[in-house]
Amino acid sequence: MSAAPIKAPESTTGVFSKGRAAIAARTLRTDRWWLPPLVTVLGFAAFIIYATVRSFQHDYYWVDQYHYLTPFYSPCLSDGCVAGSSHFGTPIPDLPHWIPLGFLVLPFLLLFRLTCYYYRKAYYRAVWFSPPACAVAEPHAKYTGETRLPLLIQNAHRYFFYIAGIIAVINTLDAIKSFHSADGGFGLGLGSVIITVNALLLWAYTLSCHSCRHISGGRLKHFSKHPVRYWFWTKISVLNTRHMLLAWTTLGTLMLTDFYVMLVASETISDPRLIG
Ligand code: FES
């Protein structure tokens, strides 16, 4: 069956512009091309709903006995933080309930992920339909790319990467502090393992960033003259090939870590202990 030719609108720059193949159907694909965008949007929605509910809950984020702090509330810098959860002091007064206790880092973490090269691809397809899949026409008549607001902000990704590096250091300190026993010495429980694995995976995701790869090995004319940067670049390039996997894995481990801390903090379950 042949599709009838369509008349291209005069002023468009998208797939229906002059010079593009005049095909009436939005796509000739017969496979389930809509499945990956659907799964993507469901995954994002699950994370956003969970993180929003937990961030505004203001409860069950700290296990005083074992020094477990959920990453959604770290660092906890307000006078309203429960005793012991503020590893860097409380320079900020008590906050109204509509401000999350992790308000200082959550916007930057969100911007880091929103401007991530992988997430861009994912939500441009799944949310923006620009385009929804290969060989499926987008609904927009014009395409201006990332050359004007609001998408111009995507170009600031490198700066959000720097901030994410600082937050990864804070998560690492939280992981070290989680090796704490009820009597005040060294301790090891399932919570310590979960918090530490989450911190390591956050490092892997952060270091596998395309900006990090460019910072380590970009703009060099001769790798042979920069052996240290070349070494970093090769290692980060290996991680970078798994960036999409790490992007999804860390969404999962962030939720899992927070959920586990919430269960222990609310005394729904007790933490299995190997030491202390
Ligand atoms: Fe994904 Fe930088 S490209 S975090």
Task: Please provide a written account of the structure.
The chain has 276 residues and is mainly alpha-helical. The protein has one domain (32-275). Helix content is 45%, strand content 3%. It has a two-stranded antiparallel ribbon with strand order 1-2. A two-stranded antiparallel ribbon has the order 3-4. A hairpin with a 4-residue loop joins β1 and β2 (68-69). FE2/S2 (inorganic) cluster (FES) binds at residues 116-118, 157, 161, 209-211, 243. FE2/S2 (inorganic) cluster is lined by residues 116-118, 157, 161, 209-211, 243.
Number of helical runs? 8
Uncertain runs are none
* Structural class by sheet pairing and helices: mainly alpha
Secondary structure tally: strands: 4
Instruction: List cofactors, ions and other ligands.
Output: FE2/S2 (inorganic) cluster
- Range of helix content: 40-55%
Strand residues, percent? under 5%
Mean model confidence by pLDDT = 92
* Radius of gyration from CA coordinates: 23 Å
